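Example 4.3 (complexes with small molecules)
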Amino acid sequence: NTNAEANLREVLSHFIIEGSISSVRLYGSGHIHDTYAVTNGTPDSPDYLLQRINHNVFKNVPLLMENIELVTRHLRQKLENLPGARPDEEVLTLVPTHAQQSFYQDAEGNFWRVYLLLDGTRSYDIVETPQQAHEGGKAFGKFLALLADLDTNQLHDSIPDFHNVESRLRLFEAALQRNPKDRARQVPQEIAFVQQRAEQMSTICRLGREGRLPLRTTHNDTKFNNVLLDKYDKALCVIDLDTVMPGYVAYDFGDAIRTTVNKAAEDEKDLSKINVDFHLFKAFTEGFLQETCSFLTQEEIVSLPLGATLLPYIMGLRFLTDYIDGDHYYKIHFPEHNLQRARAQFRLVEVLEANMDLLRNTVQETATLCKTTEAEQQK
Ligand code: ADP
Ligand code: MG
Ligand code: MG
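Answer. The structure with adenosine-5'-diphosphate bound is encoded below.
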């Protein structure tokens, strides 16, 4: 343990750290990286957040870090020109190494980075109130709005085809063909669920290809716990920028809805517990559209409810693919864990589908109202 801490301190010594460190401890509930809070022993010197980047998931860390540098620089510049904004708290601040790099690679090949720790904030794994959902919507909406004028050609695809359902479906069909553990015949209903919806779920991909949906700078991992809220439950900062790359707005809306409206766990076993809280849906949508309605096209607005079913479909598809393939990608805690996760996501898809008219009306009415309000304010 002291050995581990000495090692972490050695890593930190490569970064331009103010003051003297008093402790380094594991922090947060992220599933991807190892995250540590670094407490400063010197008064008036900042605390830090140290992360070891998971390079099994992210194959090209230098490119990913270039994306984060670009995006945080752009956000900061925009916020500095926005009256009332707090650029130091509303955007992540990378702490450079002594070699003026945004990351450090150790002798074992691990990649490390340091951010300023945003004090007095927290993230929620499960949304508790409509106020929180509204704040989450505002935070992710504002993120898109501030990045709407960034040229997406400057960004790298840090994980190619991440939310591309057509490519996910090809991987699924390939796993079915291989069927290495002979599990395919145990899950005919789940396979049928995927195949019946394959074409409809490809709508966003198709519209994108036809040039009817624009590629924008999107976050692509808009889980609700990737927004930091302050002590008054006000959204402060969007975090976890590893997957920022060109994408469709419906992806960000959809993944946020997936993790906001369903109060059951991502891998809930009892499917009857999986439901959609429409107050939370409405609250999130209002916050999101307040920030985005002025620049989203009508076709993008129409695509939002599709995104809400697409993202849990893609997650379920990825879990089911991994199950059929013999559980290589996701960590499992019991033998049929991936299957249970897939079933939970597919149930969420079904509940959202059954309420599609309500979702569409809520989105359209909210967008119309936001546009009217904005037009009046400009008079
Ligand atoms: P992961 O990809 O593993 O989810 P995150 O970047 O989301 O990693 O970080 C994990 C957790 O650490 C977050 O959920 C949040 O609670 C906390 N966290 C991340 N960045 C900061 C920060 N700059 N200030 C305070 N807390 C943070
Ligand atoms: Mg996270
Ligand atoms: Mg992450």
